[in-house]
Amino acid sequence: MIDNICVVIPTLNEAATVEQTIDQVRAHCNTIIVIDGGSTDDTVALSQKAGADVKVLLERGKGRALIHVLQYVDHPITIFIDADGSHDGNDIPALAQPIIDGKADMVIGSRWAGGSDELHGDMNKWLRRSGSIVLTTLVNWRFGAHLSDIQNGYRAFRTEIGKNIGLEEIGFTIEQEMVMKFLAGKFRVINVPSHEYARQGGTAKLNLGQVWFKFGTVALRHLFGFAKPKIKRDDNEK
Hints:
Distance between the termini: 26 Å
Shape: globular
Number of helices: 9
Strand content: 5-15%
CATH class: Alpha Beta
Order of helices and strands: EHEHEHEHEHHEHHEH
Structural class: alpha/beta
CATH superfamily: Spore Coat Polysaccharide Biosynthesis Protein SpsA, Chain A
CATH architecture: Alpha-Beta Complex
Helix content: 25-40%
Radius of gyration: 17 Å
């Protein structure tokens, strides 16, 4: 059990899997916040039944929800995990430990190192995989990083940095924005292996064409320095 972390689970109609996700997380931490975007199924009731602290934000958008929920987090480390069963809650210690040890400021689960059931099998998955490789390559080139996966929503980070770095994206692109702002601010971002399982319930919320257009727009703003972090890491900080 890790005392200094808070796990945040964004939800939108995830009644089929949210209890299972909370149960997995509960084995590793006591503080779990579900931030719901206005589910029309039993997600909220089931999350409360499973013992999570539930916040409901009726405005849609994953980024909007994650930025909003950070105001309620008072633990040094925050972990974001999806509610659809694609992430393994047992990877929480591996995500948190490099931050606890002072070796990283953000740790992202890498599907390239841990494997993925969602990135292989059909044309849409091929496009998703190919786009992810291109974007990750550009980010590594721009910031001198050596990351294999920047888009996985399963990640841990120092809460204080997440609250103050100036996150603005209201949609799924918050995950890319967060990585690029941490890197631009000279904060340490690393990957650890984490397997991505096939979605176990609910439906995907992404339109691939719209998502990649948005990803490209957001990436260009950050790669060329138009969206700067509000804080930077002290070069003398360990």
